[in-house]
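User: I'll paste a sequence; please echo it back and then give the predicted structure.

Assistant: Echoing your sequence first, then the prediction.
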Amino acid sequence: MRFEKNQLAEVRIEDIGSEGEGIGKVDGFPLFVKDTVVGDLVRVKLTKVKKNYAFARLEEILEESADRITPPCPKYRACGGCQIQQLSYGKQLEFKQKKVWNDLLRIGGFTERELSEVFLPILGMEEPWRYRNKAQYPVGRDKEGSVITGFYAGRTHSIIANTDCLLGAKENEAVLMAVLNYVKESGCSIYNEETGKGLLRHVLIRKSRATGEVMVCLILNGRKLPGQELLIREFQKIPEIVSISINVNTEQTNVILGKETVCISGKPQIEDTLWLWDEEGQRTGEHVTYRISPNSFYQVNPVQTERLYSLALQYAGLTGTEIVWDLYCGIGTISLFLAGHAGKV
């Protein structure tokens, strides 16, 4: 059977690819279909046909998989921020565990016997929503010219308007609405990637899980923010905000942050605390508090970070005499955790 672009086909999804796309076969010819789940029977339209496989767009679900759920986010299909949200969380964990296993076999060169001796089950979250302590929102205009902020659609730089990502802090929506109000009142120009002109590029938001403090940083294609006091007044309506900064990035680049950051209100840093867990999964009294700036590298999922670092410390089996090297350490989250258990870090 010959396949062509825009051709319609019915296919049963039998597997899941490395990026979460469903995989099915029609007369032995593989089709990769985003937004599908193993077990789905779907009608699709072919979008790109290669010699030995094709990509297709989901048109209609004819039979739903038992593992399919309704994605909680209404912007899920258009937005490029999430994958496999239509898959139940338990099955998501199975997919991730299988991916790590296969990568260790294929790329790492381990045997199944070697892996089976050391491979432990994946540790999921009790609540896999609202956990991200950092978000970076591009600012642009929609087709009607209205100012929007949100996330890029998959494999594009077209912004899907969204002020309430379900992975981020609840305060993010209030911050973004304040920014949009400020832009409307001040006339602040919006950066255009194609021309390199315009001022406001991105909004960066950080939240401390330990204190509830919120930091906001506006990334600018310039050094002066018009109506700065108007912006500060908008943010003062949100009591959690304790730090307001601007970051200068005048380069035509996909890199979000520039090298220069200036605090214009409040304090230049916020603090967050990570706690050590014991083998029973309970917090101990041991903890480290970190100061975080807009440019700091800090793990975005603090709940799983605590579990990860605690397990790493358990597996290391430090006796207090070792020298530990922490390479590419960011703000030292791992090394500071290990400092009290090694001879030198």
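The mean pLDDT is 96. The chain is about 20% helix and 30% strand.
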